[in-house]
Amino acid sequence: MIRLSLDTEHSAASTKTVQALWKRQWLHYAFRRATVSFSSGDATAAFYEGQALRGVGDLAGAREALEASLKLIPGQFQARLLLGQVYLGLKDPKAAEDQFEAALLTQPQNAEAQLWLARAQIASGNFVEALRQLGPLSKSQSNNAEVFELLAKGYSGLGKKAEAVRAESRAKTLRKKQQP
């Protein structure tokens, strides 16, 4: 049996986070959350808290924790990427775009961040920019079905039906190849 006790120095929000994680059986996050020292000014702790809160669906709490982490260390790639995903979940694609663009400033060739940026651009109706982002990815990630699914959405958003059908067809072919 695992006994988890929190000292009184933890904030009410931290205690609440651990309890929520524990109830949802995210034991590894709860344990990490309970044992890390959460003093003010701890960017790593704030990042882990944001990650855990996102994991249990508390997007507003995750946003707050990740913003606190980035306030302390603005150049954190993973925190920017995660905060962008949180913003998308909160239906704020423009704020998500800003985070993904900031992440790409630190790792410009990161395909995951490029895909997330394209998702945010499509969500905000910025189809031209999404297609501009996805063009090079369709060559470097030519076996990635998701790239072509996003291309299809971008083309559809611009009313380019033939290109959308072609991209969707490529995505379906790639999905079939990936199935065991």
Jot down its keywords:
180 residues, 0% strand
Task: Provide a descriptive summary of the structure in words.
The protein has 10 helices and no strands. It has helices spanning 12-23, 27-35, 43-55, 59-72, 77-89, 93-106, 111-123, 127-140, 145-157, 161-178. α5 packs parallel to α7 (111-123). Mean pLDDT is 85; it is low at 1-12 and 34-39. 74% of the residues lie in helices and 0% in strands. By secondary structure, it is an all-alpha fold. The longest helix has 18 residues, at 161-178.
Give a quick summary of the entry:
By secondary structure, this protein is mainly alpha-helical. Helices cover 74% and strands 0% of the residues.
